[in-house]
Amino acid sequence: MRPETIIKALTRVYLNDSPLPEEALRAASRQRAEMLPLFLAEVEKFVALPSKARYKATPVLLIFFLLGEYGDPIAYRPLTRLISCPEFSDRPRFADAFDILGHRVLAAVYDGDPTPLYEVVLNSKADRICRSNILYATLPGLIVNGKLDRESVANFLIDAFDEIDHPSVWRAWATLAADLNLSALRPMVKQAIEEECFDGYDIKEFDDGLAKTGEEPFRPDPNQDFSPFEDVYTEVDYFIDYLGGCAR
């Protein structure tokens, strides 16, 4: 299939506004060497657009997942720039897709440096779902798979205390601190609660998280999927079916 035909077939306003283009996705998987630079160019083009223009039909919703299937670290930094754009993830159903699948895509392209992920978490302009997902799932997944050091994340959580600015990101921050068994952060969590940084979170929830961790240095969410991201069509089609199929 010609590259321009693939990109046209991938273009859509919403992730589920029509059936997935299976033929184009399969062709993109086969033509990886040819499509990778073109997909990266589409990502950078999207990032460079003014905010209003980013809400138009775009191929990057599916390119995001294809780059995860490719698993090339060259895509890591472009994708962290992409997820920093709220117009990318803040679309019907795509936010759900990122929440369930995004951490596995980012883990697939991770190049060994967590700094770009940390920067997204602290970026007040980025979508809160992406920021929270990095704390809830992306960083834990990298630790579980031996790609990231627990101490690096612990130091980041301490440094991030003065920069977090959204209740849902605060909750993800505290949840990860408990999962990492960082009892030393309890005074910071208590201070944030007293300053009303959270929405419906209390110190008991943090203490319960620490208790679940027990003596372990790290206890990730047992319900979280940290497996490799592989076949795009299978992964995304299953997700769309799970959430009720395509819009009509």
What is shown here, in short?
With 248 residues, the chain is an all-alpha fold.
Task: Give the SSE layout.
Blueprint (H helix, E strand, L loop, with lengths): L2 H8 L11 H9 L1 H17 L11 H11 L5 H8 L2 H4 L4 H16 L5 H7 L6 H17 L5 H11 L6 H13 L6 H9 L8 H11 L18 H11 L6
Helix pairs in contact: 1-2, 3-4, 3-5, 4-7, 7-9, 8-9, 9-11, 11-13
The low-confidence runs, each spanning 5 or more residues with pLDDT under 50, are none
The profile of the biggest β sheet is: none
Q: Radius of gyration from the CA trace?
A: 19 Å
Beta-strand percentage range: under 5%
How is this structure best described in words?
This protein is mainly alpha-helical. The chain is built from 14 helices and no strands. It has helices spanning 3-10, 22-30, 32-48, 60-70, 76-83, 86-89, 94-109, 115-121, 128-144, 150-160, 167-179, 186-194, 203-213, 232-242. α1 crosses α2 and α9 runs parallel beside α11 (167-179). The chain is elongated, with a radius of gyration of 19 Å. The two termini are 27 Å apart.
Question: What attributes characterize this protein structure?
Answer:
mainly alpha; 14 helices; elongated; 0% strand; 248 residues
